[in-house]
Please model this.
Amino acid sequence: MAKTSKTVPVSSQARKKIVAQLVNSGKIHSQADVVKELKSKGLKVTQATASRDLQELGAMRGKGSNGESHYVLPTNSPASASQGLLLSIMTSGNTVVIKTPPAAAQFVASSLDSAMSSQQLSGAIGTIAGDDTVLVIASTPSGGSALGKKISTLFGKVK
Model:
């Protein structure tokens, strides 16, 4: 006899809370993992729903201590959110160039943007992120050096 799986109806807010817990547990490496983990809890979702939930939670791809890529959620502390992801900081004029591991630049840029919004990081007007490089623009023509030092202090020691 085939086993039927029972689905449990939950609100989108409750589902996102579960997704956040799964992401924080380090179990989520892909959107398919979200679908699979929710299914194991009796929640049936599509890949599109999993993608939307991750996006609305602000989840971004990050690297674990083992180098494996997985989803992470931003935190209020840029230092804790991006710890170990700053490989180098170089400055020139009004720019700061931060090198990160592959696929980590978007997460670091988001952490920097959050720090700017919360006034933890002053002197920057914006970020641009690629795959492994973040460009931060200082608010003054020669502010790159001071901004680089602030970022280094805020985010901790560069690897």
User: Anything to note?
Assistant: The mean pLDDT is 84. The CA atoms of residues 94 and 144 lie 4 Å apart. Residues 12-24 form the longest helix (13 residues). The chain has six helices and six strands.
